Structures
1.
Amino acid sequence: MTQAAPPCLLGHVKLEFRNLGPWIFGTEQLKRFTQDSPIMPDVWLQYGRDPGDGIDLLLEPHAESTTAELAQAVLHADHSATDPAPLELAYNGSHVAVRLTFEELLRSVLPLSEWWQQHLWPPGTGSVADVLAERREEIVAGLKEPMREQGRRPVDAQELSGALVWFVGLSGRIAWEAAHPDDEQPDEEPPPGLTYDGLVDLAADALGDLQRLPPPGRPLLWAVNRNRPARPALWRSRNTVKADAATLLFDLRCNDICWAIVDSGVDATHPAFNVRSADGVLTAASRVRATYDFTRLRRILAGSDADRDTLGDAAEEERREIESRLRSGRAIDWALLAGQLRIEPKDHKACAPKHEHGTHVAGILAADWKATDSAPPRRNDIRGVCPDIGIYDLRVFDDSGAGDEFTILAALQFVRWLNAGSPVPVIHGVNLSLSLDHEVGSYACGRTPVCEECERLIGAGTVVVAAAGNEGRAFVSMASGPIEGYRQMSITDPGNASGVITVGATHRHQPHTYGVSYFSSRGPTGDGRCKPDLVAPGEKITAPVPGGGLKSLDGTSMAAPHVSGAAALILARHPELIGRPGEIKRVLCATATDLGRERYFQGSGVVDALRAIQSI
């Protein structure tokens, strides 16, 4: 069923937190600090800022449902726009990614939740329009303090649910903003000209003739999250973490160890990643074992025709099978998708990444490029922490360095699937030199989708190393103007995950002198846990970049692969620890070098690969 979008949902303004926040969290003395709806507060706020736009969302299925069932329900839900924008719907093992307008969220997704079915329109009630019309007077009275109303539970079938009052007020307030795109943001709430009766009318217009429950009448949806945007967060630094001493003393070889670089892509044609023969000569073979481009995943699962012309017959047959599975609501099949996502070695030159971040990160871990190699002359050898390790290139950022949480989740799930299908691990560890801002009012710290996916991967036996983030520096607004300072509790996701080895930054070869880098995010976590776990060199780190070049970059992104390398060296020396990421983390933290700084700044100290190996 379709109908024209109501005028109140056409337009574009920026609704500030001070205006919408009271409708979400309340203002009265006994206000609640949380909200019960499955829609996270940051989603409501984003729609308030952009009420006429589609927003990229992550839908989490109810425990009684699957992502495939939830995806099917969203595809067949009651979208009300005459010419709806593409949903861009795709799903992985844990979430459904979809782009929805505010009206589509209310009509197509929210009715799939238990909250809608039990607290807004429980069994025995009529259609949405009937309830809003028949109970208008009670709703209007409750809108004077909607957040307090939300916590009130009806004691009998005749009592109005407080959740309904809150929902009508909040959805009506966002709809009103869309209808007044040129108005200044008022200081008082509700704005002049908006009555409580008007809020009910706006909510009714948005919901239209939607019925109480969509088939099949059981909860399919648990939570609605924003698909958060993600961002990419050497010879002397190798000595700082004592990788050189460890390699020489124990004659370590990491050629049987593989690490996944979840990033913007690794230039497999760069000579720094070529295999070196027993006599020390670089061969033409690359140590990049495989490249998978997860930035394609959304287009593939959404049935995009953008790259069909490049598909062979076999790939086209796989694509048709993927689309068939999507239409029939079956679970995602990584065996089918792997071939669609993989970049074949013959295409590595044409598909070399344009963004330098991933190649640089991989180089810190794995570069092996001597000044005497047949390449442009250099004064120094460029050697990563593990110059013979195998690399899996999992691309989650596009050529501009943009990415999102859904793509990262898919890459992590793919690693789990790859390892589960082999008697021995294919990928021993994952490096995540990336950051997602933690939305404090929406998620418990360390319990965001990407953090939970990291914990599942760790539980499956894979080491996960993540950058702490580069949010340690801050500008504070004072009466005399902005001043520069530092921020505590600034760890970003997935560094907030408990089992992840979270890495801050220090100076590349004088960590005792300079301590923790000014930009490095600091702990504790928002729920009081000690983070970061370690620090490693992250300032002016020279490493390979695409096109056969070198560059110096700064950031905790550069620090994380030093710790990935230290973990890989432990696994190479002590293979019995493969599959025991918790023990790897314990050893690295227990043997780190104390820099004499605050625990929430330095963690356990700067990583020491030699001492870690000797301690076992």
2.
Amino acid sequence: MFKNLQLSESQYFYTAWALILLCFIAMLINLGAHHMFVHTDEPRRAVVALEMILSGNYVVPTLNGEPYLNKPPLLNWLTVSSYLLLGSYSEFAHRLPTIVTLLALCLVIFFANRTALDNKTALLVMLAVLTNGRVLFLDSFIGMIDIPFALLVYALFMAVYFLGQAGKYRTLFLIAYLLTALAFLTKALPALVFCGFTLLTYFIFFDRWRRLISLDHVLGILLLTGILGVYYGMYLHSSGVDAQTLLQTIFYESSKRTVIRFGILDTLIHLVSFPFNMLVNFAPWSFLALLLFNRDIRKALWDNRFIRYNMLLLVANLLVYWTSPEVHPRYLLMHAPLFYTIAISAFLIGAQNRSNWARIMLIFLLALSALFVGGLYYGSFHIANQPQFPTDSPLGPLIWAVFATVVLVGMLRIQSQTEKLLAMAAIMILARFDYSIYMLPVRAHTQEPYRQQAVEIAHQTRGMPLYLYGSNSVQDGTTYYIERERNAILRRHTPQPGDPQAYYLVREDMIKQQKMQALGRLSTLFHEDLFLVKLP
């Protein structure tokens, strides 16, 4: 029944949008099911946002009541908005901004690519961004900084191009620097790097460099300076942190993963391994980029002004990460739409020209799809044998695997090469449904004792002062659950005599030295266990 399938342009449009809608539905299922110990950075973002609400201070981010300098506050404000909107400090509320900003990113991708290219390319680029392995099975269900940052930076990329093409240079610089200011308030110095490289790329390579020396450009810089000046002026006034410490922290956070810290040898190893790591992390769509080895396809891409801009911008901005040894794939999400625009355009050109390269690539993608389907079957039996699995039968996950098999068989028989890509996206989305429904609840049981002990300590001390003794530390996930349950900040504090109501979390050696009675135990991931005591 698939062999003669041929979608009209409108049918292709609605089918692709249906897949995109299904993908977001799959991402929302069990979004809050797993706890905050899955990723070390996620609970820190949750704690900082929660402490803003608990303290009523939305200017100075804090962690355990102390100024948190490592990241600016914009993501925290988004998270706070989600907490207040949903009336909950839940994991779901914390992660919802990830889904909302991912949707916004998709809309920017669609309108940019549809305007410059066509509907089909725009839809396929959206599907590639949503259904690559990195986003689909990790970044989309963790409340991190990277997707919101990617949205702002990619919007910057597109604003510069389209406003430049329209000759609206004053608007270009004002919008570019407004987006840069927002991106800076999300992740600090990388925003300035992206802005600088983007402006240089556009105005130099399109021979409009004189516009960089203009009053319009000065106005944009003044807007950026004004926004950051107002915020950091308020921050320095309210936090008690001196300007030198703040600047040193911002610079360190932005340079700690680069050659400055790791040296030449690690950098050289990274230079070689980086392209292969990116192909794997952003599979299966990333492998379409191999079509760039075809000279005719490269020439056709270069002749298109918008695709050429994507290529130049990708090279210019990617160099920063290519030369940084400790780069996580999530740092590259703003580059993914550029990359997929190039790769998918290459495939569409090859398919239109009936290139053997395109046919070979489809065979390769078919093999990758078969591996994903095989992984679904393996996962179905694996999670069904877990003691915490919600049923005694693998029937549920097997259904999704069977659905994916049917689509895979259809992919074999569909004649249209571009419709095969829709089938591949459908297989990935079915895999995410299976993952969301069955695997995420299983992950919720991983390291469950840490969450449970934090909740028990919170309930035991509710209504009473509770402190971390001195410099003792806990993993941020533990802090999140204690603060959420107690509705109070867990601060560090060295006690003074005469506070008999206060509880403290101390190390075991202190209990032994002072012969105190432990009233509870707190296992803290990555740190020593702490014990609940009242000091004499």
